[in-house]
């Protein structure tokens, strides 16, 4: 499991470097900026070795869908939860220029907290039986309750 960490802001890093240049100790700087001393040490070390405060450029694949596209997909399922990912992806491909797969649709829905639901199976009731059940219920209306 990967560690989750909160990234320090650029302004805090600049503040750390400023205090370091004014000859304050790592522990004092850590207390001032309310961070651990190891974080402060890391920022100072990176500034000395690489002479940078900013993050490196991240190299990852750009997102296939914009927020607007994701909202479109979510809205479709909120309106009609019985739709399949295949139908929504086909409709999306017709309306928008970026083609997506049904797996992408499922991923967007899972991220939004809309996990797959299947409707409850109901047994078939013939018309004759429905009439008989209604007649029985009407006949029981006037009977006293037996507790």
Automatic annotation (TrEMBL):
Superkingdom per UniProt: Eukaryota
Gene Ontology MF terms: DNA binding
Entry-linked InterPro entries: Homeodomain-like_sf, Transposase_Tc1-like, WH-like_DNA-bd_sf
Pfam families: HTH_Tnp_Tc3_2 (PF01498)
GO biological process, one term: DNA transposition
Subcellular location(s) of the protein: Nucleus
Coiled-coil segments: none
GO cellular component, one term: nucleus
Domain named Transposase Tc1-like: residues: 71-142
Protein name: Transposase Tc1-like domain-containing protein
Natural source organism: Araneus ventricosus (Orbweaver spider)
